[in-house]
C-alpha cells in the first residue's frame, strides 16, 4: 500500500525534463512505417497524431483490440480528423486487429501485419497498449492478465516483427522500439517478477502489484532486446500521469479510485504533455538503447531491472521458455 500511495501522490520526479517540442523536434519520417499497439487508446492516438502531423511518415498502423470495420474507421478518423491537410493526404492510416491476451492472436496479427503493410518494412514499433485490471484473472493462455497482455503478448509481437525491423535498419539506419512502461514498476512485488506465480491469476497480489510486475517486465524487455539487437534503438518510457481510458476502466472497478476521482485533475497532466516521452524516445538522437526514461528524456537507473543485475537475464530465460516454438 505504501508504494501505491507514494506513486499516486508523488509520482516520478521530472524536474530536469528535456525540452521537447513535437512541431520542431520530430524530424521528417518520410517513407517510414510505424506500428502503435493500443493506438485507438488515448496515448496511442496522441502519439499517432503527433508523429503523422510533424513527421509525415508513409504509413501508421494502429493495432488494437478487434472491432468491426465501422469501429475501426471511427478509430482511424479520430486520428485523421486531427491532422493538418498535408498529413491527411500523405499519411496512410490502417487498423490491425490485435488481442495481446492470446498468444495465437498475437501470432496471427504479426502475420496479418505483412498484409496490412505490404511495403515490407517496419521503422518504429511502439508497444503502448496496456491494462490495469482490478479483478484477478488470466489470459487465454493462463497467464496473469496484466502480465500476459502488457508484457508477454508484447514480447511475442516484438519477437515476430524484429526480423523485419533488422532488414529495415539495413536500408534506413534509425529503427526503434519504444516500450511503454510506467512508474508503477515501483509497485511490483518483492523481486520484481514472481516467476512461479505469473502462470496463474496472482490473486494473492493487489492489482497494483500485478500491474507493477508487468511494467518491471517491460523495462526488462527493453534491456534484453537492446542487448540482442545493438543495431536498433530500444528504450522503455513512463509517460507521466494522464487521465486516459486506463483510469476510466480502473474507476469502474475500484471504489477507492471512484471516491478519490475528484482529485484526478490535480494529479494528472494533459495528453499533449503525457505523450512527449513516447515521442522523444521515438525520434531523439539522445536515446540510449536498453534504458528506462521518465518524462521527458530523463534516464532513470533506479528500477529493479538496473539494481538486480540478474533479473533481466532470468526474465529472458523464462520468456524464451514460455514462447518456445512461437517465433
Ligand atoms: N495514463 C497514464 O497515466 C499512464 C501512466 C503510466 C503508464 N501508462 C501506460 O500507457 C499506455 C497507454 O495507456 P493509456 O493511458 O493511453 O490508456 P488507454 O486509453 O486505456 O489505452 C490503452 C489501449 O490499449 C488497448 N488494449 C487493452 N487491452 C488490449 C489487448 N488485450 N490487446 C490489444 N490492445 C489492448 C485498449 O483498448 P480498449 O480501449 O478497446 O480496451 C486501449 O486502446 C499503457 O501501457 C499504460 O500502462 C499510462
Automatic annotation (TrEMBL):
**Keyword NADP belongs to the record:** yes
Q: Please provide, alphabetically and separated by semicolons, the GO molecular function terms listed in this UniProt record.
A: oxidoreductase activity
Oxidoreductase as a keyword of this entry, yes or no, is yes
Report the Pfam families cross-referenced here.
adh_short
Q: Which UniProt keywords apply?
A: NADP, Oxidoreductase
Q: Which family does it belong to?
A: Belongs to the short-chain dehydrogenases/reductases (SDR) family.
**Protein name, as recorded:** NAD(P)-binding protein
Q: Which organism is it from?
A: Cercophora newfieldiana
